[in-house]
Write a structure and sequence with these properties.
Helices cover about 40% and strands about 20% of the residues. The protein is an alpha/beta fold. α4 links the parallel β7 (about 125-130) and β8. The termini are close together. The protein binds zinc ion.
Length: about 475
C-alpha cells in the first residue's frame, strides 16, 4: 500500500478543528424544527447554541439572543438532530483493509482514520457506533474529544469475538476457544475501554454464555451477531442488546431450528479437527439461507414479541446487503460519494456471500419484515455497515421503501440511538440542555426522506460547519483518496 503523506491536508484539518474550539454562540432564526419525539414540524422557531449545548428553543420573542452571536437565517430551511450511523467499521472498510494485529497498534491505519473521520460530519453524521473496534479507535476517540481531530462521537465495540477458526481471519478478530478464554477476554476488553462486546457467528454456545456471564459481572453490554450455535430466543433472554443485520431472525423463525442448528454445530466441530471438512464460510452462508426455506409466520410473530419484551434492538444494515446483492445496479453500487474514499470491491464481497442463494432472497425478505418488527415494538436503529456516513442516508431511503414513514425512518438515526445508548439527556432531539449536534437542511425530510441529503450546514458539539467548510473537507478527502488510488 502506498504510504500516505498527509502533512498538508492533516494540518489544515487540525487548524479547522482547533478553530472550532473557540466557537461563538450560534442562533438559527425562523427555522422549521423537526421534532422527532412529538413527530411534528415546528415552523418559525429560533434555536440558540452556546458552547457545546443547545441553550434555548422558541420563537424570537420568547428567547433572548446574546450580542456577538453568529446568526443563521433559517427561513425555508429545516433543522434536524445530528444523525447517528449505528453500524460502521473504520478498521476494515476505510480505503483498503489495513494489516491488523489486535496487540500492536497500527500507525498507518491510525493515520488513515484520522484523515478520514471528518467525512462523517460532512454528511451530517455526528455519531457513530463502531462494530469492530481496536485500540486505535479508542485512541482516536480521545483525540476527537480533546478537539485535536475533527470527527463524530464514537461508541466503540470490541473486535469480532469469533470461534477458534474465524470466518474472517484477517479482520479485527479475537479467537475464542472456550468459556475460560471468553471470560478473560471480556475482562481485558473492559479494562481497555471498549463500550460493548461483539460476538460473531462461529462463537460456541458455551463461550457465548460465558461471555454474557462475565459481561454482566462487569456491567458491559453484548451487541452484535447471533452465533450460529445459539438461538436468538436465548440470546434475547441472555440480554444481547442488539442484533446486527437481523442475523438469526430467520433461523429463529424456522420450524426446523433445532434440527438445523444441531447439524451446523456438528459441522463446525468437525472444522476444528478436520481441515478438509466443509469451510466456515460455507456453513455460515447455509445457516442464513437454509432456515429461510422453513419459515413459520406464527413463530416469527412470537419471536418479534419476544424481542420487544426483552428490549432487544435490531440494526438491519439493509444498504450493505443491497449494495452487495445488487453489485451491478448503479443506484446502489456507484455512489458518487465513494470518490471521497476507497471504493468497495463489491464483486469480491458478493463472491463470499453467495448472492444467488443467500443475499438477494434474504435482502428482499428482510426488507419486508422491518415494518413488522417496528410494529411489534422492536426498536430499529439505522446502520450502514459501510464507513463514510453517506450510505446512512440510503439506509433511511430503504426503510421508507420498505414501508416506514419518513418520520419513523428519521427516528432510527436520531432519538432511537439516543434511547438505545441511554443518552436521551444529551442526544437525539433539539431540546435545551442537549449537546448541539444539528443538521440544517434545505428541504423537508418529512416530505421525502432523501431530503436528509440536502445539507446546508452541520453543527457538531456547538461548532458550526457551514456549506463552504463542509465542501472544503470533502475536497481534501478527495485529494487524499486519489493519492491512495495512484
Ligand atoms: Zn459490520
Amino acid at each position: 500500500m502506498k504510504t500516505i503523506k498527509p502533512a498538508l491536508i492533516l494540518s489544515s484539518l487540525l487548524l479547522l478543528a482547533s478553530g472550532l474550539v473557540t466557537a461563538q454562540p450560534i442562533v438559527f432564526t425562523n427555522v422549521t424544527i423537526i421534532d422527532v419525539e412529538e413527530g411534528v414540524a415546528m415552523p418559525g422557531m429560533s434555536v440558540i447554541v452556546t458552547g457545546e449545548r443547545i441553550t434555548a428553543v422558541g420563537t424570537l420573542n420568547e428567547i433572548k439572543v446574546s450580542d456577538g452571536a453568529t446568526t443563521i437565517d433559517g427561513r425555508g430551511k429545516y433543522l434536524i438532530p445530528g444523525l447517528w450511523d449505528m453500524h460502521i467499521h473504520n478498521v476494515n472498510d476505510v480505503y483498503k483493509p489495513v494489516p491488523w494485529d489486535f496487540h500492536t497498534p497500527d500507525p498507518e491505519g491510525a493515520e488513515q482514520r484520522e484523515i478520514y473521520m471528518p467525512i462523517y460530519l460532512a454528511f451530517g453524521v455526528t455519531g457513530t457506533r463502531e462494530l469492530s473496534g481496536g485500540l486505535e479507535s479508542i485512541e482516536l476517540r480521545k483525540r476527537i474529544e480533546a478537539g485535536e481531530i475533527l470527527g463524530p462521537h464514537m461508541v466503540i465495540g470490541s473486535p469480532l469475538l469469533d470461534g477458534p477458526i474465524p470466518i474472517f481471519p484477517d479482520a479485527a478478530v479475537m479467537r475464542i476457544d472456550g468459556p475460560e478464554r471468553a471470560r478473560n477476554v471480556v475482562t481485558k476488553l473492559h479494562s481497555q475501554g471498549f463500550d460493548f462486546l461483539k460476538p460473531y457467528s462461529l462463537l460456541s454456545a458455551e463461550s457465548y454464555r460465558a461471555l454474557h456471564e462475565r459481561a454482566r459481572e462487569l456491567e458491559m453490554e453484548v451487541a452484535g451477531e447471533i452465533p450460529i450455535s445459539v438461538s436468538l430466543w436465548e440470546a434475547a433472554e441472555l440480554g444481547q442488546r442488539s442484533v446486527e443485520h437481523l442475523t438469526g431472525v430467520e433461523f429463529a423463525c424456522s420450524n426446523r431450528e433445532e434440527e438445523l442448528r444441531a447439524h451446523y454445530v456438528s459441522r463446525l466441530r468437525d472444522l476444528n479437527t478436520d481441515p478438509s471438512s466443509e469451510g466456515a464460510l460455507d456453513i455460515w452462508n447455509r445457516s442464513e439461507w437454509e432456515p429461510f426455506e422453513s419459515l413459520d409466520p406464527e413463530r416469527c410473530r412470537k419471536l418479534y414479541g419476544h424481542l420487544a419484551a426483552h428490549g432487544t434492538w435490531v440494526v438491519p444494515t439493509l444498504i450493505i446487503q443491497k449494495m452487495i446483492s445488487h453489485a451491478n445496479d448503479p443506484r446502489w453500487a456507484n455512489n458518487p460519494n465513494f470518490r471521497y474514499t476507497w471504493p468497495m470491491d463489491l464483486e469480491a464481497l458478493a463472491d463470499e456471500f453467495d448472492p444467488e442463494r443467500r443475499l438477494r432472497p434474504l435482502h428482499d425478505y428482510r426488507m419486508s419484515v422491518i415494518n413488522e418488527l417496528h410494529d411489534a415494538g422492536v426498536g430499529v436503529l439505522a446502520g450502514s455497515d459501510v464507513s463514510g456516513g453517506f450510505t446512512l442516508h440510503q439506509e433511511l431511503e430503504i426503510f421508507v421503501e420498505s414501508g416506514m414513514t419518513p418520520l419513523d425512518a428519521l427516528r432510527t438515526a436520531t432519538i432511537n440511538p439516543a434511547r438505545y445508548l441511554g443518552r436521551e439527556n444529551d442526544l437525539g432531539s433539539i431540546t435545551p440542555g442537549k449537546i448541539a449536534d444539528l443538521v440544517l437542511l434545505n428541504k423537508n425530510p418529512l416530505d421525502d426522506i432523501r431530503n436528509t441529503q440536502s445539507i446546508e450546514a452541520v453543527v457538531f458539539r456547538g461548532h458550526l460547519l457551514d456549506r463552504p467548510n463542509l465542501d472544503r473537507i470533502l475536497r481534501q478527502l478527495e485529494v487524499e483518496a486519489n493519492h491512495l488510488k495512484d
